[in-house]
Design brief:
Blueprint (H helix, E strand, L loop, with lengths): L3 E2 L2 H23 L4 E7 L3 H16 L3 E7 L5 H13 L5 E4 L9 H7 L11 H8 L9 H13 L8 E5 L6 H10 L3 E5 L6 H5 L4 E4 L17 E4 L3 E3 L2 E3 L4 H5 L4 E2 L6 H20 L9
Helix pairs in contact: 1-10, 2-10, 6-7, 6-10
Bound molecules: nicotinamide-adenine-dinucleotide (NAD).
The site of nicotinamide-adenine-dinucleotide has 24 residues, from α10.
């Protein structure tokens, strides 16, 4: 039987509606909306689209959205000073700096500048440290959090004991994804560009998450019969978006699979809204009723 498609777009819309309801309830009591600042440096077209989508989603969630755009030649020092202004701005609960940054700016220094209490991307070392310590009181990176949400929705009997293989070891996707799967009691293997016999390793995966940025890299034979496949990759090929996975081939072996587009991408934005609401609630010492 061909794999069932995990409709990330619909699941994300449902989650965003819940976030909007919770945001309206809370803001009704406090008289102030949650605020998200999205910082864009330069004019990278893909980044511009991502920032626009985040702005739109923030407005739809009932948040204030502060779009902060700087020229590509802004100095690192000036950018840090601007970020410190956002750190000090009581209207701003969440700060996200759209990556990648121009080569003359260190993303490590920029990420370290963001107040960890407003780090809704979950990239600050304090938040990633909490994640790797199995703590849930920090911010979890949006894309892996969205993948986990999809997995929990899909695997109704729970994730404990499953063999999970993550392809990719970036700080943004691969590593935090592996940490989250471990915290769900999966047996986790992280693979990367130097991994040997990758196909043999993935063929044992009940859960396969791919985040390499290589179009149709994961072949049908690499996918175990009945596996759940989460395709994080976003690759532009001849003006079309493709995932990391040979979708058609993988559908023959997987039980469930995310499409590209319409799988993980919308979940990333929904989880950013969730993290912003979480930041707002923490700053205002309000209990967030919505847990994901
Ligand atoms: P990255 O370039 O930082 O990391 C890629 C990883 O893939 C590396 O760890 C590398 O070791 C691994 N890799 C490369 N070649 C490999 C090979 N031959 N075998 C095994 N592993 C290999 O990229 P990233 O930021 O982690 O993003 C990965 C993909 O996910 C990209 O396509 C990106 O656009 C996409 N992405 C999507 C979302 C979303 O919301 N859907 C969010 C973030 C990233």
């Amino acid at each position: 039987m061909p794999a069932e498609i995990i409709d990330g777009k619909a699941i994300a819309a449902e989650l965003r509606a819940k976030i909007a309801n919770e945001s309206a309830r809370i803001a009704g009591n406090t008289g102030r909306k949650p605020g998200l600042a999205v910082v864009l440096v330069g004019e990278d077209p893909a980044s511009q689209v991502y920032v626009r989508n985040k702005h739109k989603a923030a407005i739809e969630a009932g948040f204030n959205s502060f779009e902060t755009i700087f020229p590509a030649d802004i100095s690192e020092k000036s950018l840090i000073s601007e970020l410190n202004k956002l750190n000090d701005n009581s209207e701003v609960d969440g700060i996200l700096v759209q990556l990648p940054l121009p080569a003359h700016i260190s993303s490590d220094i920029v990420i370290n500048t963001i107040n960890p209490a407003k780090d809704v991307d979950g990239f600050h070392p304090l938040n990633s440290g909490k994640l790797f310590n199995g703590r849930r009181d920090g911010f979890l990176p949006c894309t892996p959090l969205g993948c986990l949400y999809l997995l929990k929705r899909t695997i109704s009997k729970g994730l404990a004991g499953k063999n999970a293989v993550v392809i990719g070891r970036s700080n943004i996707v691969g590593k935090p994804m592996a940490a989250l799967l471990l915290s769900e009691d999966c047996t986790v293997t992280i693979t990367h560009s130097k991994t040997r016999n990758l196909a043999e390793i993935t063929a044992n995966a009940d859960i396969l998450v791919s985040a390499t940025g290589k179009p149709e890299f994961v072949k049908k034979e690499w996918v175990k019969k009945g596996a759940v496949v989460i395709d994080v990759g976003i690759n532009r090929v001849e003006n079309k978006l493709k995932g990391d996975v040979d979708f058609k081939g993988a559908c023959e072996n997987a039980s469930f699979i995310t499409p590209v587009p319409g799988g993980v991408g919308p979940m990333t934005i929904a989880c950013l809204m969730y993290n912003t609401l979480k930041a707002y609630c923490k700053i205002n010492e309000i209990k967030l009723e919505l847990e994901i």
